[in-house]
What we know:
Chain A is of the alpha+beta class.
Amino acid sequence: xxxxxxxxxxxxxxxxxxxxxxxRARKRAQAIGTEIQLSLPAxxxxxCISGVERGLMALDGVNDVRVNLTRKRATVHVADGLEAADLxxxxxxxxFEALPLDSATLSAGTSDRAARDLLMRLxxxxxxxxxxxxxxxxxxxxxxxxxxxxxxxxxxMIALPTIAFSAQPFFRxxxxxxxxxxxxxxxxxxxxxxxxxxxSLFETMNSGENAYFDAALSLTFFLLAGRFLDQKxxxxxxxxxxxxxxxxxxxxxxxxxGVAETVPxxxxxxxxxxxxxxxxxxxxxxxxxxGTSELDRAxxxxxxxxxxxxxxTSVRAGEVNLTGxxxxxxxxxGKDTLLHSLADMVSVAEEAKSKYNSLADRAARIYxxxxxxxxxxxxxxxxxxTGGDVRLALNIAVAVLIITCPCALxxxxxxxxTVASGRMFKHGLLVKHATALERLAEVDEVxxxxxxxxxxxxxxxxxxxxxxxxxxxxxxxxADASSHPRSAAIGAAARGRGLPVVTVTGIVEHPGLGxxxxxxxxxxxxxxxxxxxxxxxxxxxxIDIAGEAPVSLAFADTLRDGAHDLIAALNARGLPVTxxxxxxxxxxxxxxDELGITDWHAGVxxxxxxxxxxxxxxxxxRVLMVGDGLxxxxxxxxxxxxxxxxxxxxxxxxxxxxxxxxPDLSHITDALRIGRSARHRIxxxxxxxxxYNSIAVPIAFLGFATPLSAAIAMSTSSIIVSLNxxxxx
Amino acid sequence: MEVLSYLIPISLxxxxxxxxxxFWTLKSNQYDDPEGDSARILRTDYDDEPAQD
Lengths: 729, 53
């Protein structure tokens, strides 16, 4: 084995591969170990795959790594003792953003199996269609007598088992619809396939001229292709949604005799004492029994300013603990928490959404009965015209059924949705709901939440130039010792400013109050105004140097990237924009003025948000709601269509139809544009299908249709529809 | 036309090979990561097979 470590010295790909290969083989041979799933949102190229795989293989205890670029995920097998956190740390050192996923939540194997099952049926029907088509070409070009019969028999031998296997999904759906006394798209499809196959078999036995085996098979193939695209799109969206859920592993730290142990959330009972570390999320509703700290309630109420908590304060699931560790007695768990009652509200609204009539549903409702009536009419008419020639009449009825085949209809919607979802994904938008694209196209008003949606939800120091240099330097030195968001903002503002160097010693953080240290023997403090200088003005942060006047530091929320562009683009389109925030009046007004939003409401409660959406709905408005917090959840579910940023709480992401993965807000205009374009293409495709039918049906009705014309018409309409779908931009 | 009695079984057999090959690609997870595979082919790293999981 070569000991060369430098890849650039290798003269050929094989020399380069050899050490890697033996390394891989060695690690493979070891016990496979525990499986860890990582989400890699930023990977996009071959270099990233190599970087991640090599980087992780270099770690001790990693047995196997496989990156899946399509799902932007890595599956890692590690020996015991290696945690997901070690892997993400190693990857972030290499410059790859990585997030651990909860494997239990991810076991979405069923949808994968369904997609594979469809692909198998699609492959078989494609194979059979091509062979039968070739045999049919011989018949169309003039094979007669025994040769034609032989070719028909071979076609039958290929076609019948294939139909029995590949067309099962249609038969099953049609059967369950008929059992419920309904008609769906699958009933005419199944009828056309079965009648065409049966009729052709009968003709073959009687040495007839026309056999429609190729038509029955291409019908199956094209429709399966549409089904497969549909399934693929949904499973991508579903696995993305599952991934978002898996990002939040549902565990809590329970204190038993003073020792903290990690337990699943479901094991928590009322009365348990839980520990919430700084930076952690409060897992249940409860009361603080020990510790002081500050909580970030932005997700629940939209407030930007942290709230001080003390023993006796009640806390809600979903709030984020900022400074000191807290002990919380659980008072409501699982279904009783505020978070859960909001989730129930969401599921009620979801129900309403699933009743939305998509374009495809509406088309199917007109189409399905019409086809049956046409075929029946053709049968009766020809029976009467020919004076009882059942064979001819049935032949023409089958031709009508095949010609009106919903190939173009079956492909019209899935092809467009697939292309549009792909385009949305490129812009950093995940489409979660099947009809979300259509609903996006109908939007005539946009409502935004403020904190975490239009803003980043992290504070930024305002007017740093106005702060005296010395005080700023001391504040920066003190802020270094704390992980509070405002400290981080001070640190970020101080960086690269060339502030004088100060040495502050003995720095202590007082949870919920601030940071204290000593400068040349004098006490310096950075923190709440009330603690620093007995000032009762709440919310402000001050820096106090003993013997000098305290200096106030003001903070503001930073705007998300692209917020200006987004609002400007919406105004240019003439869509009215409204801002609904649970935050105080001042910051909301400042933001509205900055962005040029004239219609804004501050201090709005979650129920008021929902009520406002209800009002718009009953006024016939189709509202796009963009929000991220728990206080937006009900509003997101009630809106005609909704978008949540990926940074949102899980409940909000579940309620939203589209998740914005990209940090840039201006992609929402892309979403609206693509939605409109998709709707346009779907309607065009329906137009193509209608035009084609209006030409083909009379021909079939009059008995001029041949298997050749059916095959040509069917393929051209399907291809035109698919090509048109590609134009969605 | 006697040639047909050889050609038809032969063509069906060849088609059958294609079908079996398709089943094999499906069974060995070759459609799991189309984007990744198109990127991997251009790398200089050695890559033994799609992971069997």
